[in-house]
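Why does residue order matter? Because the sequence determines the fold. Keep that principle in mind as you read this record.
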Amino acid sequence: MKVIITVARHKHAVVVPVGATWADLAAALLAALSAPAAARPEDVKLLWRGRTVADAAASVAAAGVTDGSRLVALVPRAAEELVRVVADRLRSVGRAEGEGLGSGGGGLAAAAEELGGVTALVREALRREH
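Structure:
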């Protein structure tokens, strides 16, 4: 069966067997996202009919998911990756600013350092969550 899973603003069509479990669906989503190897299916929070799925071993068909159903997924690793990309971009802009290519008095470099601290906080929160 093919289900549509929304992650952030992006929709992904994921095909799973009719007898698939929620864990199987999460694993198929991670494969569709080309998620890093560190991402695990248990990191994915699936929302069906406005509620978080509690039992990952339960069948998706038993919950009423049919071909063409739409779900929402929260993937915390994607958020961590976004923070890393933004931090890297800010650091590179800060370096350009230091070389006289940008304007201002080090504001971007300071912002990059602050965002680096946010990245560490996100990682720590993810560790505590699991």
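Helices lie at 22-33, 76-98, 107-129.
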